[in-house]
Design brief:
- This protein has about 325 residues and is mainly alpha-helical.
- The longest helix has 21 residues, at about 100-120.
- About 45% of the residues lie in helices and about 5% in strands.
- A hairpin with an 8-residue loop joins strand 6 and strand 7 (about 220).
- It has helices at about 25-35, 40-55, 65-75, 100-120, 160-170, 175-185, 190-195, 225-235, 260-275, 285-295, 300-310; strands spanning about 10, 15-20, 90, 95, 200, 205-210, 220.
- It has a three-stranded antiparallel sheet with strand order 5-6-7, with no helix packed on it. Strands 1-2 form a two-stranded antiparallel ribbon. Strands 3-4 form a two-stranded antiparallel sheet.
- Helix 10 packs antiparallel against helix 11 (about 300-310).
- It folds into two domains: about 1-135, DNA polymerase, domain 1, CATH 1.10.150.130; about 160-315, Intergrase catalytic core (hpI Integrase, Chain A).
């Protein structure tokens, strides 16, 4: 039954995406999430639930802690599971399962789902353990071993020469403006794609982020080079009859004038990386290149936090102290 699960999306009116996986209780949970989270968050949760129930092969009421532990093993080793449920990665030349960070994210989604069912009275308990017990558990409750250990890695950043090479490899003013927003302003990919024409405040050299992570708004300064790139794009490339007020739109093809997608942005960067001969330069890395350079230039950590849109200093990356 669960092998046939798949993520589908339509529209539930008023432009609200209706995401489904084909499992009734999961679909109820996704509907609940849609009223609280961004569309991309709901879509990601749907995929993670689809993966979990495809691998476990049981209905929510039948899932036990042993099934969750078996799921972790399957995800990390890449051995059991339904085709498409695992995304093998190459680890020292050997095929393995997904990363520990991916498993932890999926467990978080599954745990949230079962907490929702428990609140509704659908299940008696959440089958996702908080951790594995140890001998210290009696004296120090909650100090068990995490189900999944994740190494905390510093984000890779680009050198000035790599940024120049990437920028030179971009083929349109639009693409150069998008990269400039990330590498000069520290914007997230979703924030770049969510920019509207009214959010650009060129006279102040600031950009208004209407929907940042967690729904937080902020007004941030961005280099004049970004606004110069945007002006060139708006003057020469953006269709006059674009069907949206989003800044960045598709330039050619059947979707011309429609908002550019995250997939389209990633394809632009992937092509530019190949032309520039770079082995890395993701949207996330461009953003953290900006934040790291600001910190190295002497900007206070609190100011970098505000620029990044982090809820707290602890939520942000480990940044070097200014030299």
């Amino acid at each position: 039954m669960h092998a046939a699960l798949r993520v589908t999306g339509g529209h539930a009116g008023a432009g609200v995406p209706a995401v489904r996986v084909g499992l009734p209780l999961a679909d109820v949970y996704l509907e609940f999430l849609a009223g609280r989270c961004r569309p991309n968050t709901v879509l990601a949760a749907a995929y993670d639930l689809k993966v979990f129930f495809s691998v476990v092969g049981k209905s929510p009421e039948e899932v036990r802690a042993a099934d969750v532990l078996a799921f972790i093993t399957a995800q990390r080793t890449g051995k059991p599971g339904v085709r498409g449920a695992l995304q093998p990665v190459d680890r020292d030349g050997e095929a393995a399962g997904v990363s520990a960070a991916t498993v932890r994210r999926r467990l978080s989604v599954v745990s949230g789902f079962f907490a929702f069912l428990q609140a509704r009275g659908e299940v008696m308990a959440n089958p996702v353990p908080r951790g594995l017990p140890t001998r210290r558990e009696r004296s120090r409750p909650g100090q068990g071993v995490p189900l999944v250990r994740v190494s905390r890695r510093l984000p890779r950043i680009l050198s000035p020469a790599e940024v120049d090479a990437l920028t030179a490899a971009l083929r349109t003013h639009r693409d150069r403006a998008m990269v400039a927003a990330m590498v000069l302003g520290g914007l997230r990919r979703c924030e770049v794609l969510g920019l509207r024409l009214e959010d650009l405040r060129a006279a102040e050299r600031r950009v208004f982020i209407a929907e940042g992570k967690g729904g937080r708004q902020r007004l941030i300064p961005v280099s004049g080079r970004f606004f110069a790139a945007v002006a060139a794009y708006l003057d020469a490339e953006r269709p006059a009859d674009a069907g949206t007020d989003r800044v960045f739109v598709v330039l050619k093809g059947p979707r011309r004038g429609q908002p550019l997608s995250a997939k389209g942005t990633d394809e632009v960067l992937a092509s530019a990386r190949r032309r520039a001969g770079l082995d890395h330069a993701t949207c996330h890395e461009l953003r953290h290149t900006c934040l790291t350079r600001l910190r190295e230039a002497g900007m206070a950590l609190e100011a970098v936090q505000a620029q990044a849109g982090h809820a707290s200093i602890e939520a942000g990356p480990d940044l070097p102290a200014p030299g």
